[in-house]
Amino acid sequence: MIVTFSPIRMEEGLTASRNGSTLVLNGTAVDLAGYDAGKAPCPWIVGQPVKEDGVWRVNLILPHGGEAPEETLFPRPLVLETDGPLALPPHASPAEDSAGADGAGADGAG
User: Fold this and answer.
1) What distance lies between CA 32 and its chain's CA centroid?
2) Are 92 and 100 spatial neighbours (Cβ–Cβ below 8 Å)?
C-alpha cells in the first residue's frame, strides 16, 4: 500500500493503522476493497483509492497544527509493506506541543 497525504490545518488529530486492505482511521475501519467515495465518503480519504498492480494507493488528509514541522507540511508518501500503525508525521512542532502547559497533551487529553 502506498499512502500519500494532503496536509490541512485542523485541531483534530489522526491515528491510522493498516490491516490488509483495511485502514483504521481514528478508530473507524475502512475496507478499501469495498470503498466508494461517491456513496459513503470517509472524511479522511481524498478521492477514490485505486489498486494498481496489486498495490493500493490512497490519499489521506493529514491534519496539522499552526506551527507544524516541514515533514508534516510536505510529507513523503508511506510505502507500507506490513500491517500495523502508520508512522504519521507529527501534528505540531515540539514547541507548539509544549505551549499547551495546562497539562493537556497534543490530543487535548489531560
Assistant:
1) 15
2) no
